[in-house]
Design goal:
10 helices, four-stranded parallel beta sheet, alpha/beta
């Protein structure tokens, strides 16, 4: 171990307290992260690691608090302008009532304790997308128990609805634009296929175009800093943070060693 690592659950998720607001915007999430770090006693500066939406949140935190950030690692991250670059068919799929109903349905079942009762016997269609990477671990059943908490699923549904609307509609201009991260050390780690090639309900052509767009987005993210670097990892999906954890650790160590 070369440094202290800290993880957290956003408000309403995992073991964190229930949200006391209906604001699920990235700006609100970053304000909560600022409050958490200010009250945590963890010494700054920080090397922030953000995956997907967490990657955008990390960018926004760094923009708002440049003196507190020693480095950034963005893992298949979201970008402020990606709505303009994603094929219309994929955006339509992300905003479809069926996609939203799957998240809402799991939340409704959790309110009656159904998910908690069936626990590890949940059908695959009700499991979180990343669960297959955690099967076999000693804490897998605990993970499913946390996932099935009503407040956790409510927050997942509300976040998904709010962020999808921000990213995939004209509301994307409400996202804070991040044009530069100046000279903050930055490593962008990109997946080969951010969208699963077997995703039902979307044409192969759209999936291929979407994955190409996401690769371009990751490349552009690496240019936000004059000290930016891009790493594409072959054979990985959007879950690469679980598929290739050693690559994430190596990136953290790379930035850490430069700061010593």
């Amino acid at each position: 171990m070369f440094t202290t690592a800290c993880t957290y659950d956003r408000a309403g998720l995992g073991w964190s307290d229930v949200r006391n607001t209906s604001d699920y915007s990235p700006a609100k999430m970053v304000s909560e992260l600022e409050m958490l770090l200010n009250n945590s006693g963890v010494s700054e500066p920080y090397i922030l690691v953000g995956h997907s939406l967490g990657g955008y949140n990390a960018q926004l935190y760094a923009q708002r608090n440049p003196d507190k950030v020693a480095g950034l690692i963005l893992v298949d991250s979201m970008k402020d302008d990606q709505s303009e670059r994603i094929p219309a068919e994929f955006k339509k799929y992300q905003l479809s009532p069926l996609t939203s109903m799957q998240a809402q349905g799991a939340y409704m079942l959790s309110q009656y304790g159904v998910l908690r009762i069936i626990g590890p016997y949940m059908p695959e269609s009700m499991l979180p997308p990343l669960s297959k990477y955690l099967e076999g671990r000693d804490d897998y059943n605990e993970y499913l128990t946390i996932y099935a908490l009503s407040k956790n699923l409510k927050t997942m549904y509300e976040e998904y609805s709010a962020v999808s609307t921000l990213i995939y509609t004209d509301s994307s201009n409400e996202l804070t634009q991040i044009s530069t991260l100046n000279d903050i050390p930055l490593i962008v780690i990109a997946a080969e296929t951010s969208v699963d090639p077997d995703t039902p309900g979307i044409s192969k052509e759209t999936i291929d175009k979407t994955n190409e767009a996401f690769r371009d987005i990751q490349s552009d993210l690496s240019k936000l800093s004059s000290c930016g670097k891009l790493e594409f990892i072959e054979g990985t999906s959007h879950a690469l943070i679980l598929e290739k954890p050693d690559d994430i650790s190596s990136a953290i160590n790379e930035i850490y060693q430069k700061l010593k």
